[in-house]
Amino acid sequence: MKTLTLEKKKILIVEDEPSIRTLLDYNLKQAQFETILVEDGEEAILKASSEKPDLILLDLMLPKMDGIEVCKSLRQAGSNIPVIMLTAKGDEFDKVHGLEIGADDYMTKPFSPREVVARVNAVLRRSADRPSNNDNSAMLLKSGALTIDLDRYQAYLNDSELEFTPKEFELLVYLVQNKNRALTRDQLLSAVWNYDFVGDTRIVDVHVSHLREKIEVNTKKPLFIKTVRGIGYKFEEQKV
Fold first, then answer.
1. Is the pTM of this model over 0.85?
2. Please, are residues 132 and 151 in contact by the beta-carbon 8 Å criterion?
3. Over the stretch 169-190, which tens digit does the pLDDT of each residue have?
4. Is the pLDDT confidence value at 125 over 90?
5. Rounded to whole angstroms, what are the CA distances from 184 to 165, 181, 199, 223, 231?
6. pLDDT at 90
7. Cα–Cα distance between 90 and 87 in angstroms, integer?
8. Cα 192 from Cα 189, distance rounded (Å)
9. CATH number belonging to the domain at 10-128, selected among 3.40.50.300, 3.40.718.10, 3.30.390.30, 3.40.50.2300
């Protein structure tokens, strides 16, 4: 009888501090992940392209190219590989900016090995939960001139393809799937980021602003994403 061997998920670790790199490598291997180790930003981009990892642990402060530039470069190239940013800084700008340009999660050093493994598993699980099947009609969300293709992870406005970061796309999908419902910022944080930012809801406002720039004709008088004063936002369905 053949034994079924499950393929290990591949994690690209981008960290220039040897002690932290070794710690991450050891604990992820213990958790049955395959690991790839690199020490600078330029090599990270090359390995992300050649190795096609399932997730990237990306340090913020790196030689040659910092983590923000690496993440931005990956997203601009169309990569949807989940990214968890690692940093020793507690600066709020770093956190918001890192998530704004497409990171999926954010961890501040020092962190425990258990926390790292838990976060990696959580982000991989969210990535795997993205809808995908052969029922094309069920995979399309439509509202007025806006069409979202869940299967292809694409969106169109008046048949013109829109460019979103992964989190912008997921936020838009969640808003549309809950159309005409007023959603609090905390609800959106929990649903889209699946992580407690301790009341820091500014990242939701940043992403909503970016969505409006891409789908609204007039961002000051939005048709799709309305602000609900004292609560949060709602997506208002438009007739075709």
1. no
2. yes
3. 889 999 998 999 999 988 888 8
4. no
5. 22, 10, 12, 19, 5
6. 61
7. 8
8. 6
9. 3.40.50.2300
